[in-house]
Protein 1
Amino acid sequence: MTTSWFLKIALPTPLRRTFDYLPPENGLIEQLQIGQRILVPFGRSRLTGILLEKTTHSDIAKEKLKQVICALDEQSIIPDTLLPWFKRIADYYHHSLGEVLFTALPPDAKRDKSLLSYEIQWQVCNTDFETSQSLQRSPKQAALFECIKNRKGPVGLAELDSFKDPLRLLNELENKGVIARSERLNTQIKNKLTHRIGTTPVLTSAQRAALHEIKAHLQHFQCFLLKGITGSGKTEVYLQLIEQVIEQGKQALLLAPEIGLTPQLFLRVQQRFENHLGVMHSNMSAGDRKRLWQRILEGDVNILVGTRSAVFAPLPKLGLIVIDEEHDLSYKQQDGFRYSARDIALMRAQGENIPVILGSATPSLESLKNAENKRYTLIELPDRAGVAKAPKTHLIDMRNQDRHFAVSASLIEKIKHALQREEQALLFLNRRGFSPVLICQDCGHVNRCRACDYPQTYHQAERLLRCHQCTRAEAVPTQCAACGNHQLQPLGFGTERVMEQLSEAFPGTEILRIDRDTTRKRGAFEEILQQIEKPGPKILLGTQMIAKGHDFPNLTLVGVIDADQGLFGADFRSTERLAQLLVQVAGRAGRADKAGHVYIQTHQPEHPFFKTLFENGYQGFSRQALAERQQADFPPYSYSALFRAESAQAADARNLLEAVSNSLGGMTQHITAYDPIPAPLEKRANHYRFQWFICSADRTELHRFLHLALRTMEKHPLSRKVRWHLDVDPMDMS
Ligand SMILES: [Zn+2]
Ligand SMILES: [Zn+2]
């Protein structure tokens, strides 16, 4: 009796389970590889899945199982060594393994075409071969043979779509020796060595010490938290460690936050190394992503620089992971499969027994606590490398300033002086558009988005009111919708409006605005960056896009137009974010041999937050913030999760969360499960949003609870009517 084989396959569906199928034909089982893409029938359609396991056991009766259609690529596109890590991730986030895998893969992977360029192709061995003799007993084989013969060239599986189970037929024909697989189309690259080029800069003693300490641990898992202010030379430490890893014949992965940072970091890598480098970021086309994935699989990339999703890259000989700006929010995916690239990078490093380096001037409180607990090794780079001086910080009291202007008279004066010295100034305001509100002067009516009930942002140049929550836009009304008055006034300031004030105050000066509106076109951001690098006085005005690690050597003044935005946020992390942002923006000033000055405009100059941050630095702030979090049992002193639910009828989402919360009421030992509440942004795109926050000091207990909650949720009839998801370690509470 022949053995029955079953295939366990992960499919991109929200269902948190694997699916059993039968192989295309028993004889072919050896050719199927774990991690290979398989096309399967699913309901009335077809789905592309990933083969996880070949087994002789299934809980489902064989007659009830369907046969897979075919394998889509010649080889696996996920190395089987990475599968345990993917499973761990899926478990941790309580997410479908199939969706996790297809989040990792290039977008084209879901299609039923070959992902790797060397698609398997077949051609006829001998054109004189007569089908009538040897294939007459099998009309299907004969038809397929004729089809291939008529094409007069190699034929791929995709072109044989009209045949049922073409792979089986092809195999039979191949066994009979009448057709053959054509050669792989790509040629293997022979020289895969990456070389260092250029000269290595001289290190400071702190850099040398950091390098020395980490080098001693390159052969096993260990997490280093490299803390150093902007300009302290973290990147140089990364580069020299990467060189070491490359010399050992291994590969390195360097992660950077979103928004333009990756090209800059990649440039640094390119200036130091040549051959077999790769860069992966969110602006890549699907085709480029696919080609890069293939190069990585083939071992053609030794150093990969990338944003969040590069953490999934199938680097076969990974020896080091570096996560620059580890505190950055963009490492957390905020929709679909909500993972933290930093956290799963740590799981990967642990699984592959390699070191990981988290770099930041302002580490997250989570990482600082891990360093305190000795789970991470903290290494500090105290001095600015070279001769750059730390900037001086000043508060500007906005309470007595003219409310018609966003930039105070004293800050205008300081900018004037900087420009006279031929230097550059950067103004930071995290709000784009002309004004966040358009208000009726007569009755106070505010224009709100109908779908979100949120004030619409006035965009003057476009003559539009835009909702920044749902992207809905409409023409600016000529009169008030409530009272008919024609006096509609912009209230508050966005970058577009500040631009107006600056142009008036500094006629003839080059002023560059950097926000999502001015950088929408592909390449526009890079163009502005090049413009900034040109010498000469200029003013830069930007949102958080500009706050991140760009290097502007001639910048000596930084102005924060509205620091109060983060001071009273609803999120318990808002002061942490504000502190990180202020330190980061301040880091833009005075990078070369010129001293920098940072001016912060606030209506709350006496707020203890500023006192702590400026007198004791980020370290002082974080120590105090950690103490407060501990007091409140908030992360990082507890592990947390958030269920979010939204529905067109508010009652549905609320009832679903309440039903689950009530039914698990008795299970909450070691668990703090808050009552479900409306989200701070209660309505978005015509849906009412609710959330349910859960935390526990015990991670295992939390996950046990989440498991139960999910099962209860999935069984509830409302769960099919309401859009809901679970966010483990949520970072955004809006
Ligand atoms: Zn009115
Ligand atoms: Zn809206």
Protein 2
Amino acid sequence: MTDRNPPTSNKQLLIILGIFLALGCLLLWGTLKLVDGLILLIPPSVEQQLGALVVPAYERLAAHSPAQDTLDRLLERLETKLPKEQKIDRNYRLLYIPDDTANALALPGDTIIVYRGLIQQLESENELMMILGHELGHFANRDHLRAIGRGLALQLVVAVFVGDTGGFANIAAAIASDLSKAQFSRNQESQADEFGLKLLVSHYGHAAGATDFFQRLARENNLDIALLATHPAPGDRTVTLKQTIAQRRYPIRDLSPLPATLKAIDKSLLLK
Ligand SMILES: [Zn+2]
């Protein structure tokens, strides 16, 4: 009897340790889930406060031009198709930056950046609307807040929901520096693509142009494009989008031409 006791208590100890470990993991997992859930409840105004720390740097590069007016008008048209909850407390705006970077991005606080280099790559209005819809998707899914580190996210949640203990400014500054290098996950990117596709279809009544730009990128293998550095492989995006279009039986009709003010943007004409 006495010989058998020690191994039994070792086994019991192991079981207890295992239970504690499992409980610890569960607690950690629960906290992360809770933070994720609470992030989605953070009001857009908090995100706009964060955006106010990042947006001015881009505002300085923006230039007023006919292209800006056209882009504003297109974004407005797309906004009317947004689900109701995505219009509350939002302040969407677009900044056109005359720079050869071929990219578009969403800054926290509802600002979309579109570079001249991207417009030069486009062949239809539909392609542009798909890209704008994708960026609106990042706002809808609160991707900026979800992209910040867990530690900072937890601090932000505490500051917003438990009460600010004077630390918000510090947290915001840390988050702003985090956001300048933030990259969204593959999953976030495909969710934004799906959101963009839905908007595209509700705007035009069909899905033509949804994949054209990505398809061209994949074909041309143009590695110089900034958009490729921050987004999943365009070939994969095309495949997923085409599957969704087929599953939902979205019709494909004629493309709308790029508005004249955007078509006029040609490297040779506009280099200042
Ligand atoms: Zn994206």
